[in-house]
Hints:
This protein has helices at residues 3-24, 32-44, 52-87, 99-112, 117-142, 147-172, 178-187, 195-214, 216-220, 226-231, 236-258, 264-276, 280-304, 312-333. The protein is an all-alpha fold. The protein is globular, with a radius of gyration of 20 Å.
Amino acid sequence: MSRAAIATAVALAALAALVAWSFSVGRFPVAAGDVASALWAALTGGESGLAKNVEAVILQVRAPRVLAALAVGAALAAAGAAYQNLFKNPLVSPDILGVSAGCALGAGLAILFSLPVIAIQGFAFAGGIGAVALVVAVGNWVGRRDPILTLILTGVVVGSLFGAGIALVKYVADPYNQLPAITFWLLGSFGGALPGDLAVALPLIAIGLVPLVLLRWRIDLLALSEDEARSLGLDVAKLRLAVIVCATLVTASAVALAGVIGWVGLVIPHAARLLVGASFARVLPLSLVLGAAFMLAVDTLCRTLAATEIPPGVATAFVGTPVFIALLAATFRR
């Protein structure tokens, strides 16, 4: 068995243990056997034999939250790995093209206009897609001499512009009702994840992830120079655009579902590369599993460590900083 297969198998086992732990712990502890009975009854359409309140906690409260954390973690980690390979820069994260800033501005505008939750998520998604579309359009208009550098610089500029828009929205928002809601959304949360939200977000995330997985061997070639990639028969421009579209789709869907959560797309691909090497074909599957496990662990700790729930966007920064430093040290020592 290869090193990548062993690492992925261990990560999957750890993920399964984390899922069982996340369903069981909380302010209303639930036995592992009860969790298994409720989930099996939900899948088969049978009766679990559990009390209604126990079954409600498992299926209506924790199941959507666990699924949301798994999906968001996998999406952000995969997008980060794709962007880092595309831009040949290990410091790139999923918001490099301004998608997070666009989502935040869209959600902030929806909250400012007192729109319902589904509209907030829709505005957030549209804002993220719009930001990246603006980056690509401006990058194509500026010039094609160095498309990678042009996209990065344009992403920084557009992200700063949308950041100014967020600041303006917060400035004019009602300080008693709207401003706290905007701030809370910007910190990220899985507490409001509902089955209806997942029914919209999960297919969009899957639509973006499937092409990345299927094209992972070709995407690996983007780490080469353009001339080398073209000599191998690769249409660099089309593949680059496909990666941008897919990575942006999964990032925008994840941010629209849970708010702005940083560090996952930056740290997890580094951990995967440390375990299985630099090949994107091996990094992507492991990043999906590690990202899901990391996000689920962080969210479970956020809702159980204190009486007041800690926003996961804050926790990932506190956890991600020392982990990233440790990964850098381990990489350079190798």
